[in-house]
Amino acid sequence: MKIGILGLGLIGGSLGYDLRSQGHHVLGVSRKESTCQTAVALGSVDVASVNMNLLATAEVIFVCTPIGLIVPQVEHLIKHLKSSTVITDVGSVKAPIVTAISPIWANFIGGHPMAGTTDSGIEAAQKKLFVNRPYVLTPTSQTPPDAVAQVEEIVRSLGANIYHCQPEQHDRAVSWISHLPVMISSSLIASCMSETDPEVLQLAQNLASSGFRDTSRVGGGNPELGVMMAQYNRQALLISLQKYRQNLDELINLIEQENWTALTTRLESTSQARPNFVD
Ligand code: NAP
Known about the structure:
By secondary structure, the chain is of the alpha/beta class. It has eleven helices and eight strands. The two termini are 36 Å apart.
């Protein structure tokens, strides 16, 4: 199959590696000429260009640009395509994208691979990034079943686990487990940096180990991605942040009141709940 990728960065480049290894012919389009050359040299795509026209013959196209560019880039892209071409995207937010693209392209299906790293760009692309990872698809009642089936088949071949849901449900769910953690993790680092005694701050930096590595990881990632999450999933993220603030206030109260029994109950409850989210 001829598969197109628009946006050759971490996600687009990683998709390219795996699709090529499945025997697909992969056409890549990116903004910078140097990225196109690197993508070909690394073996992530078969051919690459800065010209969208390269994707005219693709049967399925994955749009992998930063979130804010997905809708405008698809508006340009569709001028080059025949109506049977299936378009899917990988954006971390779904409702605004699906709402904007569905009316202009019938064969569109929203998608979001729940895989990534804190790095970005074509050099950060990895083989087998999607194996055993959730991959959300958000077809609407209007999405042609053939288009859904084609994207599903490709996604399954990446080794990913497919989930279907409404775009709005997706955005609420990822607000809890992806976008809220980025904001909390960033606040954690900022709070530590507010230590006023330079010697204590230096000591804290020297002592930081696996616990801090885990809890600060997503707050130390790509700032552009964090801003996009807040901008495009603003409503759901604000609800999650307000709930989190309420939880923090409750914790502060318990500790101020030295209510160790209630604190124990609370920590026991979160300890029991965690395996429902991650192994
Ligand atoms: P990234 O590494 O920064 O890659 C995006 C690439 O898009 C850039 O390398 C850039 O390539 C290219 N690009 C920028 N403007 C473009 C344009 N006008 N036309 C064509 N290409 C353009 O970012 P990413 O992490 O792969 O994220 C891409 C998408 O995946 C985002 O929508 C994000 O929400 C989603 N996503 C990210 C993750 C994650 O963990 N990172 C996980 C799941 C989904 P040039 O070098 O040519 O400028």
